[in-house]
Specification:
The protein is α/β, with parallel strands linked by helices. The protein has nine helices and five strands. α5 packs parallel to α8.
């Protein structure tokens, strides 16, 4: 999470959606920055609205003075990225290591709830299911999000470099796996389609 309430926005860092690359370039301009622990870096919109927004208001930044924004990734690509990321050699031996799983096996564990990955829809919605993030960009439109953030800050848009990239790993998504994931992530797919 990077807070630029004094410049009109707060960036909410959805996991596996480019937030580390943006943080690298924009962190020095932030009023508030959470890098660790992951739960604070990747706080959801609900957590922000219930915990930090009231605190910001107390110190002169009413919620009406800024927007919240985030990047949203295609949920099937995001699942594939998690599978690759958790297969890196330094994660071997950890309970969530995926180096010994095919993507289809990983997908089955996601769908069953055995692998508890948060969803995009849970990240951006309230308990009633309403989207409470003001501005969402698709992950592949990272440059548009970067340009908007730079404009708000009055700086030149930075040239982004890949950061926190998952290791290269061949993984195929057969038609059956794709269909099961599309059904499982139906809400997330709809959310992704609605993003800028």
């Amino acid at each position: 999470m990077m807070c630029f309430a004094d410049r009109g926005f707060v960036f909410l860092s959805m996991p596996k959606a480019g937030s580390t690359a943006l943080q690298k370039h924009f962190a020095r301009h932030a009023m508030i920055l959470f890098r660790q622990p992951p739960g604070m870096k990747h706080m959801s919109a609900v957590t922000f609205e219930t915990v930090l927004a009231p605190w910001l208001e107390r110190y002169g930044h009413p919620r009406s003075d800024y927007e919240t924004m985030c990047l949203v990734r295609d949920p099937l690509e995001r699942a594939m990225s998690w599978w690759r990321y958790r297969a890196r050699p330094e994660a071997a031996g950890q309970p969530n290591w995926t180096g010994d799983l095919s993507f289809a096996e990983f997908a089955d564990r996601l769908i069953s709830g055995e692998v508890p990955l948060g969803t995009s829809s849970n990240f951006v919605t309230d308990a009633a299911g309403a989207v409470i993030v003001d501005r969402m960009y698709r992950y592949e439109h990272l440059e548009a999000a970067t340009a908007w953030m730079a404009e708000q800050l009055g700086i030149a848009p930075p040239v982004l470099e890949p950061t926190n990239v998952s290791p290269a790993r061949q993984g195929e998504m057969d038609a059956g796996t794709r269909a099961r994931l599309e059904e499982h992530y139906a809400r997330d797919l709809g959310l992704y389609e609605s993003a800028l």
